[in-house]
Design brief:
- The complex is a heterodimer of chains A (155) and B (220).
- Chain A is of the alpha+beta class and 155 residues long.
- Chain A has 2 domains: 81 residues, Sandwich (HSP40/DNAj peptide-binding domain); 67 residues, Alpha-Beta Plaits.
- Chain A is built from 4 helices and 10 strands.
- In chain A, the strands form 3 sheets. Chain A has a 4-stranded antiparallel sheet with strand order 8-9-7-10. Chain A has a 3-stranded mixed sheet with strand order 1-4-3, with no helix packed on it. A 3-stranded mixed sheet of chain A has the order 2-6-5.
- The longest helix of chain A is centred in the middle third of the chain and has 13 residues.
- In chain B, β5, α4 and β6 form a beta-alpha-beta unit.
- Chain B has a single domain, classed as Rossmann fold.
- In chain B, α1 crosses α6.
- Chain B has a 7-stranded parallel sheet, sandwiched between helices.
- Classes of the chains: A alpha+beta (155), B alpha/beta (220).
- At the A-B interface, β3 of A face α4 and α6 of B.
- The site of guanosine-5'-diphosphate (GDP) has 16 residues of chain B, from α1.
Chain lengths: 155, 220
Amino acid sequence: MHLVTSLLGNADDPELHDVLHRLEHAGRVEWLVLPRADMARRRLRAVTDQGSEIAVALPRDVSLFDKAVLVLSDNQAVVLRVEAENWLCLKPHDQAAALALGYHAGNLHWRVRFDGAVLQVALEAPVESYVQRLHTFIEDGRVSIEPPAVAAQGE
Amino acid sequence: MTALGIKPAAPNAARIGIGGPVGSGKTALIECLIPRFQAVGIDLAVITNDLVTKEDAERLQRSGLIDPKRVMAVEAGACPHTVIREDPTLNIAAAEECERRFPNLDLIIIESGGDNLASTFSLDLVDWWMFVIDVAQGDDIPRKRGPAILQADLLVINKTDLAPYVGVDAEAVLAEALQIRDSRPTIACRCRGGDSDPGLDAIVEAIGHDVLFTARGAAP
Ligand SMILES: Nc1nc2c(ncn2[C@@H]2O[C@H](COP(=O)(O)OP(=O)(O)O)[C@@H](O)[C@H]2O)c(=O)[nH]1
Ligand SMILES: [Mg+2]
């Protein structure tokens, strides 16, 4: 198990790029893929795509980020990637519905982003648990569910 | 066996939260955890949140289980959720004070002042948190979902000893909770009259594995 108590940089940093590139050619770069919600943690335990166990215990003033280099040696690197997120896209049909939907999403502490007239809700639990909370909006046609936004890696 | 030799390298103590409705057994669970962690050399402190008193802190200080100086009280005032979620400043300050007083701490346990099912812990405050419910509150609590039930790193269903008296099938509650939580960690236990309760050992093991970094299947 690797204990990670500091972050070594960003995989895109020029001074790390070459060594990572070389390790990647040798098949020695492992990815630790974590959900976005875990970026707020200072301590966690997880397993890389190659099965290596990683224990993170960071100082309280350090935060994880996408492409953080966690482990780097002559023959191994571990780089963090944030899991692609799925968003539930909601289209309110008029201004009154938009007001009510915005209030509702805030009241439920949902993480949202705005895409023009569509409200996107980050899915941090099974989609049904969100749709159930919206049933009155959907039943009376005030809000409709749009096709999903394309999930972007590490965005 | 302490944290597999990596204990000295961790730059600080792990911080874990214990939330749950008033009376579900949060303090009782802490009373059960303290001797189990002490037995394996885990250096710990406890922070309790009460509304306007220090009731829980004083109970732990009187318990004889732990050095009273290792128990701190935070008075949450009118809103117990705010101090663990939106604005955990008071609790963060208390945790930092614990670390100053006891530089070798491995673990800080933070008990909330009592929550409804909407309550969650800020990950700025804790690294990992559990939510404690009990069978005597009815068998429909997991079904009512709520962010606490869905998002907790561990859901604890306490007071299994009371199940027969309140007409609840503890096994069925556990099975339903596991299904609702998509098989994320969920453990049934009893904090009274069950000194050798396997559920309590499983909770210690889960904390050891997830934040103290012990091997799976080992006590911390
Ligand atoms: N029968 C039984 N009683 C329990 C159990 N756990 C806690 N209690 C009792 O439940 C009451 C509330 O417990 P407490 O720890 O103060 O709950 P808190 O408000 O969540 O901290 C106390 O009288 C405890 O003794 C249990 O597993 N079985
Ligand atoms: Mg209590």
